[in-house]
Design goal:
By secondary structure, the chain is α/β, with parallel strands linked by helices. The protein has helices at about 20-35, 45-65, 70-80, 105-115, 130-135, 170-180, 200-215, 220-230, 235-245, 245-260, 270-275; strands spanning about 15-20, 35-40, 80-85, 95, 120-125, 145-150, 160-165, 185-190, 290, 295-300. Bound molecules: 3-hydroxybutanoyl-coenzyme A.
Length: about 300
């Protein structure tokens, strides 16, 4: 009789996050607030200081609202350090990459950090759309590679979408499932298909809103109001697109279009034009809305 092979599940205590942008810093905040030791890495010192400032600001807001104690805020802050050197990931049990949707960049990051991490460390990507199998295959540990996709804002949204690449092993999935529970998130497993579940549905909706604008069905305010009041969405599609980042929305549409080959996923030329203008949404100060004024003013 053959016995089932029992592979130990790694217990994750220390987490590394690559990328100090809005997703990376949100992910770092979630883990720090849940008692993990967190190292947040970026190539840019200014990006790291900005990330820490935003995390501190958000935690202060929570203290002011009474949803976080000052003591828990101090503890979370003490759990977090930043670095520009991947050597700081030496003790990390899990490293999550959360940089822009660029497969070459992601591969380079994994290749560069691999020599600094333990053999048992799980590598994860927060990609919104790129094949987890392909990213896994380019690393030195395809079986310990997984997609953990947080939603923006990570500290608020309850979901983590978890994707096994073809080579991902069961202990890796189980370790991540246990982790999701410890950070207070609900796990939904998605197949490794372009854009997974949420973005497969959400980003084409945003793209359709841009087509509606492009074709004159309504202006930005009309379309946003219609979807908030008529479909109970907390943000209209243009507010949400600006919040996610128009470059990310366009990158997801391009992956859907190229990999599924269906013309229904063609990115709206107006979305591409906004990205060409570097009007990327909230993070660049202007997207479908102009954030230089309060309240933000629609750009068309
Ligand atoms: N970061 C951290 N926390 C935030 C935040 C942020 N950027 N914005 C709001 N919050 C927190 C507040 O601190 C507050 O926390 P508290 O209850 O503990 O005090 C709570 O969220 C509610 O805040 P507000 O009352 O100020 O804000 P709203 O009620 O207007 O809600 C929202 C804000 C949660 C962002 C809401 O508008 C929303 O759910 N929008 C839709 C978000 C969405 O669809 N996200 C998914 C995008 S798709 C994605 O991320 C995938 C990617 O791959 C593209």
């Amino acid at each position: 009789m053959t016995r089932p092979v029992v592979v130990p599940v790694v217990e994750i205590r220390a987490v590394g996050v690559v990328g100090g942008g809005q997703m990376g810093r949100g992910i770092a905040q979630v883990f720090a607030a849940s008692g993990f030791t967190v190292v947040l890495a970026d190539v840019n010192d200014d990006a790291l200081s900005h990330a820490v400032k935003m995390i501190e600001r958000d935690m202060q807001r929570r203290v002011d609202r009474g949803t976080l104690t000052a003591e828990d805020r101090e503890q979370a802050r003490a759990n977090l350090t930043t670095t520009t050197d991947y050597a700081a990931f030496a003790e990390s049990d899990l490293v999550i990459e959360a940089v822009t949707e660029n497969e070459v960049l992601k591969n380079t990051i994994f290749r560069t950090l691999q020599p600094h991490i333990k053999a048992t460390t799980i590598l994860a990507t927060n990609t919104s759309s790129i094949s987890v199998t392909r990213l896994a295959a380019a690393t030195d540990r395809p079986e310990r590679f997984i997609g953990i996709h947080f939603m923006n804002p990570a500290p608020v949204m309850k979901l983590v979408e978890v994707t096994r690449g073809l080579p991902t092993d069961e202990p890796t999935f189980q370790a991540v499932a246990a982790l999701a529970e410890r950070i207070g998130k609900r796990l939904v497993a998605s197949a490794d298909t372009p854009a997974f579940i949420v973005n497969r549905i959400l980003i084409p909706m945003i793209n359709e809103a841009v087509y509606a604008l492009y074709e004159g069905v309504g202006d930005i305010l009309a379309i946003d109001s219609a979807m908030k009041l008529g479909a109970n969405h907390p943000m209209g599609p243009f507010e949400l697109a600006d919040y996610i980042g128009l470059d990310t929305c366009l990158a997801v549409m391009r992956v859907l279009h190229e990999e599924l080959g269906d013309s229904k996923y063609r990115p709206c030329p107006l979305l591409a034009k906004y990205v060409d203008a570097n009007w990327l949404g909230k993070k660049s100060g202007r997207g479908f809305y102009d954030y230089a004024v309060t309240p933000a003013r629609p750009t068309r």
